[in-house]
Amino acid sequence: MFFKKRPPLDTPMDHFRHRADLSTDERAVLDVYLTGVIHAMSGMNAVQTSNGLGNLFDVGAAHGLDVRGIEELIGAFLTQRPDMVNQPLGLCAVIAVMQRYPA
Predict the structure, then answer these.
(1) DSSP element (H, E) containing 6
(2) What Cα–Cα distance (Å) separates residue 18 from each residue in 14, 27, 31, 33, 103?
(3) So what's the pLDDT on residue 6?
(4) For residue 18, what is the DSSP state?
(5) Average pLDDT, the chain
(6) Among candidate residues 79, 75, 74, the one with its CA nearest the CA of residue 96
(7) CA distances from 7 to 4, 15, 80, 83 (A)
(8) What is the C-alpha to C-alpha distance for residues 56 and 95, in angstroms, rounded to an integer?
(9) In sequence order, which residues have a C-beta less than 8 Å from that of residue 70 and are 6 or more positions away?
(10) Would you state the pLDDT for residue 96?
Protein backbone atom coordinates (compact mmCIF):
# COMPACT_ATOMS: atom_id res chain seq x y z
CA MET A 1 0.00 0.00 0.00
CA PHE A 2 1.29 3.47 -0.86
CA PHE A 3 0.92 6.42 1.44
CA LYS A 4 1.07 10.06 0.56
CA LYS A 5 4.25 11.60 1.90
CA ARG A 6 3.36 14.17 4.50
CA PRO A 7 5.08 17.56 4.26
CA PRO A 8 7.29 18.57 7.19
CA LEU A 9 5.43 20.60 9.79
CA ASP A 10 8.30 22.49 11.38
CA THR A 11 6.73 25.92 11.87
CA PRO A 12 3.32 27.36 12.76
CA MET A 13 3.06 28.51 9.12
CA ASP A 14 3.61 24.91 7.95
CA HIS A 15 0.82 23.78 10.28
CA PHE A 16 -1.43 26.56 9.00
CA ARG A 17 -0.75 25.78 5.34
CA HIS A 18 -1.46 22.06 5.84
CA ARG A 19 -4.21 22.41 8.46
CA ALA A 20 -6.58 20.11 6.57
CA ASP A 21 -4.09 17.27 7.09
CA LEU A 22 -3.48 17.80 10.80
CA SER A 23 -4.27 15.24 13.45
CA THR A 24 -6.61 16.27 16.25
CA ASP A 25 -3.69 17.01 18.56
CA GLU A 26 -1.81 19.01 15.92
CA ARG A 27 -4.98 20.97 15.17
CA ALA A 28 -5.37 21.75 18.88
CA VAL A 29 -1.79 23.09 18.99
CA LEU A 30 -2.46 25.33 15.97
CA ASP A 31 -5.66 26.60 17.60
CA VAL A 32 -3.76 27.43 20.81
CA TYR A 33 -1.08 29.23 18.80
CA LEU A 34 -3.66 31.32 16.90
CA THR A 35 -5.50 32.11 20.14
CA GLY A 36 -2.21 33.41 21.53
CA VAL A 37 -1.74 35.57 18.45
CA ILE A 38 -5.21 37.06 18.94
CA HIS A 39 -4.46 37.83 22.59
CA ALA A 40 -1.08 39.33 21.69
CA MET A 41 -2.73 41.65 19.15
CA SER A 42 -5.19 42.83 21.78
CA GLY A 43 -2.27 43.43 24.12
CA MET A 44 -0.44 45.43 21.46
CA ASN A 45 -3.43 47.72 21.10
CA ALA A 46 -3.63 48.14 24.88
CA VAL A 47 0.04 49.13 25.03
CA GLN A 48 -0.44 51.57 22.17
CA THR A 49 -3.39 53.16 23.98
CA SER A 50 -1.60 53.35 27.33
CA ASN A 51 1.30 55.11 25.61
CA GLY A 52 -1.02 57.67 24.06
CA LEU A 53 -0.59 56.26 20.56
CA GLY A 54 -3.28 55.21 18.11
CA ASN A 55 -4.56 51.68 17.84
CA LEU A 56 -2.96 49.36 15.32
CA PHE A 57 -6.39 48.18 14.20
CA ASP A 58 -10.04 48.97 14.87
CA VAL A 59 -10.74 47.09 18.09
CA GLY A 60 -14.52 47.45 17.77
CA ALA A 61 -14.61 46.03 14.25
CA ALA A 62 -12.29 43.16 15.21
CA HIS A 63 -14.17 42.43 18.46
CA GLY A 64 -15.00 38.76 18.79
CA LEU A 65 -12.28 37.65 16.38
CA ASP A 66 -11.71 33.96 17.02
CA VAL A 67 -9.49 31.20 15.66
CA ARG A 68 -11.65 30.42 12.63
CA GLY A 69 -12.04 34.12 11.86
CA ILE A 70 -8.32 34.77 11.96
CA GLU A 71 -7.70 31.70 9.81
CA GLU A 72 -10.00 33.17 7.17
CA LEU A 73 -8.20 36.52 7.38
CA ILE A 74 -4.77 34.92 7.08
CA GLY A 75 -5.92 32.71 4.20
CA ALA A 76 -7.27 35.72 2.28
CA PHE A 77 -4.11 37.69 3.07
CA LEU A 78 -1.83 34.92 1.78
CA THR A 79 -3.93 34.65 -1.39
CA GLN A 80 -3.28 38.36 -2.02
CA ARG A 81 0.34 38.18 -0.82
CA PRO A 82 1.77 34.75 -1.66
CA ASP A 83 5.25 36.23 -1.14
CA MET A 84 4.50 36.25 2.61
CA VAL A 85 4.03 32.48 2.87
CA ASN A 86 7.61 32.09 4.13
CA GLN A 87 7.18 34.71 6.85
CA PRO A 88 6.13 33.94 10.44
CA LEU A 89 2.45 33.09 10.81
CA GLY A 90 2.02 35.61 13.65
CA LEU A 91 3.35 38.43 11.47
CA CYS A 92 0.94 37.51 8.69
CA ALA A 93 -1.91 37.49 11.20
CA VAL A 94 -1.04 40.98 12.45
CA ILE A 95 -0.78 42.43 8.95
CA ALA A 96 -4.00 40.70 7.86
CA VAL A 97 -5.93 42.13 10.82
CA MET A 98 -4.45 45.61 10.31
CA GLN A 99 -5.49 45.53 6.64
CA ARG A 100 -9.00 44.21 7.29
CA TYR A 101 -9.70 46.46 10.29
CA PRO A 102 -7.71 49.67 9.81
CA ALA A 103 -7.63 52.03 12.78
Answers:
(1) none
(2) 6, 10, 13, 15, 31
(3) 74
(4) T
(5) 92
(6) 74
(7) 9, 10, 23, 19
(8) 10
(9) 34, 37, 38, 93, 96, 97
(10) 97
